[in-house]
Amino acid sequence: MTAVLPAKRPVRPGTRDVSVQIRPVVRAGLGVLLVLWILAPLLPVVLWSVAGVWRAPAVTPDTYSVNAFASLGERATLRAGLASLGLGVAVAVVATPLGFLGALAAQSLPGRRGRAVDLILLAPLAIPPFALVLGANTTLLRLHVPAFAGVVLILVVTALPYTAFMYRSALAAYENQFEDVARTLGAHPRQVIRHVRVPLLATATARGFFLAFLVGWGDYVATLLVGGGQLTTLPMLLGAAASSTGNEQLTAVLSLSVIIPPVIILAAFGIPALTRKAVA
Amino acid sequence: MNHPLPGPGTGPEDHQGDTGESRSQRPGVDRDAGRERGLVYRRSVLLALPAVVPVVLVLGVSLVGASAQSLGLMPFIGPPVLSTRGWAGSAGELAKSATVSAYIAAASTVLSLVVGFAVAVYILAAPRMGRLVAGLSAATIPIPHLIGAGAMGLLLSDSGFLHRLLGMPAAFPALVGGPWWIAVISEYVWKESAFVALVVIGSMSRSMTGLCDSAATLGATAWQRIIHVVLPLSVPALAVSALIVFVYTFGAYESPWLLGPTSPEPLPVRAVRLFGSVDLDARPEAMATALVSVAASAAAILAGVGILRARRNVR
């Protein structure tokens, strides 16, 4: 490789030496800067989560403690965690199949009608979530829609663009030949669905489900305004802690409890695929 | 729903991808094909309904409800009385809020594009370190903005982590709650640059590697390759992500609520505060504020799509 490259690149004399000498240094420096940029806001979160006493001029905590983590085991916090999980799963369970149906219809409807379905499914992205919630709130109250159902309904509409888009791109790249081959080989229609169609759409399903789950898991505005205080999720606890002073430890551990579960899912399924793509 | 995918050989859909060749091989199929097409059409419409109905219903109820409430026609209690006070009574405040929101969104969008493009190029150019940056950057995407805002608060506030790292200088600017919304914009750039990088990397094709190699063979430096090859090819991805970032940051509530000054208020903060006010007369103003943000988002999207279309046509 090193023997081939100089011959392939007729670089002007002088510049080649510079690029060979400086580039790895610049590259490493830039890499360190980018890693710092990404980790900078997370560093104080991690430090505060294990800090006991941490007074102002000190750069690192004066004492360390796991008391803040212990507060995660409290009943109210656990209940909030379950509520967040329930909200995320409910939104994903409804929005994923609806996204599939919408994407399927958009693909099979001819011309303008297909585009209209696409446009309707993407429309919630154009409306700020808080505006959607404010406008719908009075009607939901008048119809006596329970808080949880109301939040799920609003968030399903917010999540539909993501799930529909995932299936839309998967269906656009879908090769019908695989199904033809399976059928030629004597597969029963049900076998075709199980062994060809489901595996080929599995990635889109997983991505759509994950994104829809995140919409429910991390929501604040819809839970705040439609939930009306009846629905307490982890983001609600976090919003209360972060908006008042002196709650740094609690803010930090609640942040970690919201961040870590999805990152574990992403690390298990998502990052290998991303880096493979980046390298390719 | 036995055969949800259109495709040859799956029954009624089999004319979907065909050019007519296979149809002509079967006599008397033309009439059947017409009927089958009608069947497929009806089934597709039925398939669309479960997804389309909730969206149309929620969006419709929300926009109609907001409009009616902004005009006093749907009061929480008492008889409806048509009034434009929600709009006219605070036109100046509305304009100020819209300007603040536009400033936050514009600054966040431009900086997210610059940082996101740099991250994407770095991931592509540096093999080992790039993988680390890609992994970390992707890991920030599922973090909700509320948590990002809480973290930025711990980092940038007065006597926060950065202030301590710098040795508590007295001249430390008010990044949180200050006049330039620096903590809010930092939070948006931190989260959205990762999104921009993901979109740009996703859009890069294998042909880009070939073009970069050709440019290198012709003597282009790394910087020249980035500016003259990678950047022009990334413009469509950058434009689409710019539109998404702008509309999102224009209408998001959490960051400016947690990290911004109390006055002036961006549109979402003002609307939610008025909505939660004990004074029910504030409701029409809250709805007017929400509708202004909807209209501004719609205008930004129409303008963005228009520019993208015009660009494509020029090419």
TrEMBL record, chain A:
Family: Belongs to the binding-protein-dependent transport system permease family.
Record-annotated ABC transmembrane type-1 domain positions: 81-269
Membrane topology: Multi-pass membrane protein
GO biological process, any: transmembrane transport
InterPro entries cross-referenced by the UniProt entry: MetI-like, MetI-like_sf
Taxonomic lineage from the root: Bacteria, Bacillati, Actinomycetota, Actinomycetes, Micrococcales
Main location: membrane
Protein name as annotated: ABC transporter permease subunit
UniProt subcellular location: Cell inner membrane; Cell membrane
The keyword Hydrolase is annotated on this UniProt entry: no
Organism: Arthrobacter cheniae
Transmembrane annotation, as ranges: 30-51, 82-104, 116-135, 147-167, 221-241, 253-274
PANTHER family assigned: INNER MEMBRANE ABC TRANSPORTER PERMEASE PROTEIN YDCV
Any one cellular-component term (Gene Ontology): plasma membrane
Keyword Transport appears in the UniProt entry: yes
Keywords of the record: Cell inner membrane, Cell membrane, Membrane, Transmembrane, Transmembrane helix, Transport
TrEMBL record, chain B:
Disordered: annotated span: 1-33
Alphabetized UniProt keyword annotations: Cell inner membrane, Cell membrane, Membrane, Transmembrane, Transmembrane helix, Transport
Source organism per UniProt: Arthrobacter cheniae
Residues that span the membrane, as ranges: 45-66, 102-125, 132-155, 161-183, 229-251, 286-308
Transport in keyword set: yes
Ranges of biased composition (kind: Basic and acidic residues): 12-33
Upper taxonomic lineage: Bacteria, Bacillati, Actinomycetota, Actinomycetes, Micrococcales
ABC transmembrane type-1 domain location: 98-304
Name of the molecule in the record: ABC transporter permease subunit
GO cellular component: plasma membrane
Superkingdom of this protein's organism: Bacteria
PROSITE patterns given in the database record: ABC_TM1
